[in-house]
Task: inverse folding
C-alpha cells in the first residue's frame, strides 16, 4: 500500500466511534480485514487502501448517527455503493469508517403520472430498471458499470444516452443527504423546477461524498419509446465519424445514442463479446420515437453518414439484437482490459466542445502511438466526451510514467480547448492536480464551501480538493 | 417607503466607495435621485427602495472593482439588468450601490458547430435572438418579460418552452462571476458536461446575486426546427385541459410549448392584444420537428385533446399567426393588469408534481372566488407551474391581507404536495418566509454557504435568506 500512515485516523478516535455506533449496528458493523480490504478499492488502477471499519446501513437515520459520531471523533467517513468508481473515490487513504449503502436499495415509490421514482441510494440502475419493466418507464442514465444511483449522483455520472436524456444531473429531482454534522437535508421538492433558494441538489451532485452522503434520491423516469431502432456504421477514419455526428446534431436528429468505437475497441469487443464488426472506426446509433419518426431519423442519419464516408450499415431492430449490441458496448472497458490479461486499466475522460473533438481524438491517438501504450478508444461523441482505456501494469514505473504523460497532454489540450479534465468519471484521487488549471479562483470558492460545511474535514477527506 | 432606515449603509462608508470607484467610472457613476429611484423597483407589487448610487458598467473588471470596494467598506451591492424581476430582487432596501449591467450586452461569440454563444450578462433574450436570426439557431428560455440573461440566471428563470428545452439552469454551460471579495471566477468549461469539482454554476444560478454577480454567460443554443405548428384548443374545464397535458406527456409527444390560460386570462388577453379566443380554459400548444413529425404530433395531440373534451381547435401555421399568438401569451401578465388600470400585480408561482396540478388549480380558483380577488390564471402546465396574476391596490390593507391569505394557502398546499413556493420567479423579498417550511435543515446549509462566501453580507443583503 502506498498510503501515508501518518494521515490515518488515530486508533482511540476510531475506538470511540465504534463504541458509539456498535450497539446500533450489531453485526452490520465489521472490522474484519477481508471485508475492509474489499471496500478499499474501486475499478481503477489506483492503489487500494482499506477503511478501518465497514457499516452495512439500513436507513438514513443510521447514516446520520454514524456520520455524527465520525464528526465528533474526527474520524474520516466514506460512502460506498458497489465500488465501480474509477478515480479512487472510495479508496480510504486515511482509513476511517466506510458506509456501505448497498443494502439500502428499496424503491419507495414509482409515480407513473409524474414520471418519477423515489429510491434508496444503494439501488443499482439495472435493479431499478428491472423493477420498472412493466410500467412503460425507464431510468436513463447508464454508465458502463452497474453503479448505484447514489454513486452515480456523487460522481456526476452519465452514459450512452446523455445526448438525448441528460446526465444524472438532469435526472435528479431531489435527494436526501446526511450532512457532515449529521443533519438530514432534503434538497428540494418533487416539482420539475424550482427557484426557491440555493440549488443544494446540484452542489451535492458530483461532490463525491466530500460534503455529505446521499441516502435517497427522487429521479426522473422517461417513457419507453413506441419504437426503437439501432444500427452500427463504419467509417474509414475517426474524423468522418465525428463529422457525421456533428451534422446529425446540427440537423436536430433527436438520437438517443451516438457512440464511437475505434478499430482497436472493435477488435477488443469482438473478442470479448463474440461480435463480428468490421475492425474500423464505428458509430453505434440508437433512435427512439414513433415508428414513423424512427424510420425518418434513420433515413436521414443514413444519408448523413454516407456523405461522410460511412458504410457497412448493420441494423438491429429486434430487441435481442439491440440488447446484445449495447451489452457489447457497455462492456468495452472490460473488453479492453482483456487485451492484456491480469493488468489494470485507466480510462481517460476528457470532454471538449464538439468542434474540437476530432482534433482531440487525432492528437490523443498520436500520443498513444508515440508512447507505446495499449489504449482502445471509445466515447460519447454526441457530448464531446471520449475515453482511452489504457491497459497497464500499474507496478511498472515506465508504464505509469507513459500514462501520466498521456493524461497530462490530453488534459492540457482539453483545457486549452475550453474542455474539462473529466466528463463523467469525477476527480477522486486521479484528477485533483488538474483542478487548479481548470478552475483557477473557483477552486478557492470550492475550498471555502468545503471548509464551511465540513470544518473537521471528515467527509471523504483528501478527495477532489 | 417602507424601508427601515436603520438598515441602510452609513453615509461615510458609501462616500469611501464612491471616492474609490469614481475615477474609474466617471459619469457612469450616478447618485442622481431620479436614476437611483428608477433602479429601486422591479415589476412587482413590492414597495420600492432606491440604491444610493448606480454604476453603469462596461466590463467584468469594473464590476470586480466595485464589488471589492463595497466589500471593503461593508456597503451593500446589487446587480440590475432591466428591472423585470417580480419578487423585489432588485429593491435596495438597505441602500448601497446598484450595478446596472444593461450596457454590458455584447455578444462575444456564436459558435454554430458547438451550438453555443458567449454573451455579456446585460443582453436581453430578444437582443440575442435578433442577432441569431440568420444562424438557424435560437436561445430558448423565454420568461414573459424581455429580461437580461444575467437576470434570468440569477433568478433561475424559465418560460413557455421549458417542457421541451429546459429552464435557464439546463441552458447555461458556464458563467463568469464576480465573487464578494472581488475575485473573478469562471464556473466551468464550455464542454457539454463535466464532473470536475463542485458545480459552482448551478450554485450561483438562482442565488439572486447574494453570492456573486454574473457578468458573462456561455449558453446553449438550439437549432430552429424544420417545421413549427401552433394551435389553441378550448376545454369545458381546467381539469380536462390538465388531463390532456398529462396524457400528452405520457405519450411522449415532444411538444415545445403547452400553456394553459383560464377563461379570465383569455378575456384579458382578448382585450389587451385584440384576440378573439372563446372565453374558456384554453391550451396554447406548439410543435417542433420535421414536417412529418410535426404533423404526426399534431394529429396525436388533437386526438388526445378531443378525448378529454377539447374543442374549437385553431391552427396557426404561418409564422405571423404564431408570433401574434405567442406575443399575446407573453403579454398575459400585462393584459391582466389592465383588468384594473392603475393597480399593481402580484403573480403567484407555485409548481407541483403534475399529478397534483388539477387539484391545485381547482383549490386556487376556489380561494380566489372566496377572497374576492381579481386573478386570472395561466401557466406552464407541462412543468406543473402556474401563476395567478392578482391585480391589487397595494396600499389597500384589505386587498394585501387577501393576497397574503391566498399566497399562504397556495404555498402551504403546494409544499404539502411536494411542490415549491416558486417555480421560476425566485425568492427575493416575497418568498423568504416560506423557505423554512420548504427546506428545513437545508436552509442552515444555505446560510452557512452564504456566510462562508460573503462574510460581510454585502451581496444583495436581505434577499432570499
Result:
Amino acid at each position: 500500500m502506498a498510503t501515508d500512515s501518518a494521515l490515518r485516523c488515530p486508533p482511540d478516535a476510531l475506538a470511540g466511534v465504534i463504541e458509539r455506533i456498535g450497539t446500533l449496528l450489531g453485526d452490520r458493523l465489521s472490522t474484519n480485514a477481508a471485508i475492509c480490504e474489499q471496500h478499499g478499492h474501486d475499478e481503477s488502477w489506483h492503489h487500494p487502501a482499506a477503511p478501518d471499519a465497514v457499516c452495512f446501513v439500513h436507513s438514513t437515520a443510521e447514516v446520520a448517527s454514524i456520520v455524527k459520531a465520525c464528526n465528533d471523533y474526527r474520524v474520516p467517513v466514506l460512502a460506498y455503493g458497489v465500488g465501480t468508481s474509477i478515480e479512487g473515490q472510495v479508496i480510504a487513504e486515511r482509513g476511517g469508517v466506510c458506509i456501505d449503502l448497498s443494502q439500502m436499495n428499496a424503491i419507495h415509490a414509482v409515480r407513473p403520472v409524474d414520471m418519477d421514482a423515489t429510491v434508496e441510494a444503494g439501488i443499482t440502475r439495472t435493479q431499478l430498471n428491472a423493477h420498472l419493466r412493466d410500467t412503460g418507464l425507464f431510468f436513463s442514465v447508464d454508465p458502463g458499470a452497474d453503479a448505484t444511483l447514489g454513486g452515480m449522483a456523487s460522481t456526476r455520472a452519465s452514459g450512452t444516452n446523455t445526448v438525448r436524456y441528460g446526465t444524472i444531473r438532469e435526472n435528479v429531482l431531489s435527494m436526501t443527504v446526511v450532512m457532515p454534522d449529521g443533519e438530514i437535508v432534503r434538497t428540494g421538492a418533487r416539482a420539475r423546477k424550482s427557484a426557491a433558494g440555493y440549488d443544494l441538489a446540484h452542489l451535492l451532485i458530483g461532490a463525491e461524498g466530500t460534503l455529505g452522503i446521499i441516502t435517497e434520491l427522487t429521479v426522473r423516469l422517461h417513457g419507453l419509446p413506441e419504437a426503437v431502432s439501432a444500427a452500427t456504421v463504419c467509417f474509414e477514419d475517426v474524423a468522418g465519424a465525428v463529422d457525421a455526428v456533428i451534422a446529425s446534431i446540427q440537423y436536430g436528429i433527436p438520437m438517443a445514442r451516438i457512440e464511437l468505437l475505434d478499430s482497436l475497441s472493435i477488435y477488443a469487443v469482438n473478442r470479448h463479446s463474440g461480435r463480428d464488426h468490421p475492425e474500423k472506426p464505428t458509430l453505434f446509433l440508437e433512435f427512439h420515437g414513433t415508428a414513423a419518426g424512427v424510420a425518418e431519423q434513420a433515413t436521414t442519419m443514413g444519408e448523413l453518414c454516407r456523405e461522410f464516408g460511412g458504410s457497412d450499415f448493420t441494423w438491429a431492430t429486434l430487441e435481442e439484437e439491440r440488447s446484445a449490441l449495447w451489452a457489447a458496448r457497455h462492456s468495452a472497458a472490460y473488453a479492453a482490459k482483456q487485451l492484456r490479461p491480469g493488468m489494470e486499466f485507466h480510462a481517460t475522460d476528457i470532454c471538449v466542445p464538439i468542434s474540437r473533438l476530432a482534433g482531440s481524438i487525432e492528437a490523443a491517438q498520436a500520443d498513444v502511438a508515440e508512447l507505446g501504450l495499449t489504449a482502445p478508444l471509445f466515447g460519447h461523441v454526441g457530448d464531446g466526451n471520449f475515453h482511452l482505456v489504457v491497459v497497464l501494469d500499474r507496478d511498472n514505473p515506465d508504464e505509469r510514467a507513459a500514462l501520466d504523460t498521456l493524461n497530462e497532454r490530453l488534459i492540457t489540450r482539453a483545457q486549452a480547448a475550453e474542455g474539462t479534465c473529466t466528463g463523467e468519471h469525477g476527480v477522486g484521487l486521479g484528477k485533483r492536480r488538474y483542478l487548479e488549471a481548470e478552475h483557477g479562483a473557483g477552486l478557492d470558492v470550492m475550498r471555502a464551501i468545503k471548509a464551511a460545511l465540513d470544518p473537521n474535514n471528515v467527509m471523504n477527506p483528501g478527495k477532489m480538493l
